[in-house]
């Protein structure tokens, strides 16, 4: 079982139904109204912040603090984190994505933490 964490950035002046956006990006679809993200920069930052994790392949990370898998499109970054992943580690993911102006969407409770 895992905990999903989703991130994307809306274009200026755009705000859509977050759950529908989440469903589309999970299926790998591009969504009108979402910004293109600097995916390589984001992945480099993830590698740096989680350098103490074993990187099993391009998308899977594991340590005694937890494990996660990262999925990307040009508009979104999705993390599937093990339920045992420490809250401090989950917050690191949120902080990374905040640096790229991508608020956290929590599909478990269908809330996007962007202040709207």
Describe this structure in words.
The chain is of the alpha+beta class and 116 residues long. The chain is built from 3 helices and 7 strands. The chain has helices spanning 18-26, 39-49, 87-99; strands at 2-8, 54-55, 60-63, 66-72, 76-82, 104-106, 111-112. Strands 2-3-4-5-1-6-7 form a 7-stranded antiparallel beta sheet. The radius of gyration is 14 Å and the shape is globular.
Q: What value does the Rg take, in angstroms?
A: 14 Å
- For the residues shown, what is the average pLDDT? 96
Number of strands: 7
The stretches of 5 or more residues where confidence is low (pLDDT under 50) are none
Could you state the order of secondary-structure elements as H and E? EHHEEEEHEE
Structural class: alpha+beta
Compute the separation of the termini in Å: 30 Å
Proportion of strand residues? 25-35%
Shape: globular
- Main β-sheet, in a few words? 7 strands, antiparallel
In the sheet with the most strands, the strands line up as: 2-3-4-5-1-6-7
Approximate helicity band: 25-40%
Number of helices: 3
What topology does this entry show?
Blueprint: E1 2-8, H1 18-26, H2 39-49, E2 54-55, E3 60-63, E4 66-72, E5 76-82, H3 87-99, E6 104-106, E7 111-112
Antiparallel strand pairs: 1-5, 1-6, 2-3, 3-4, 4-5, 6-7
Helix pairs in contact: 2-3
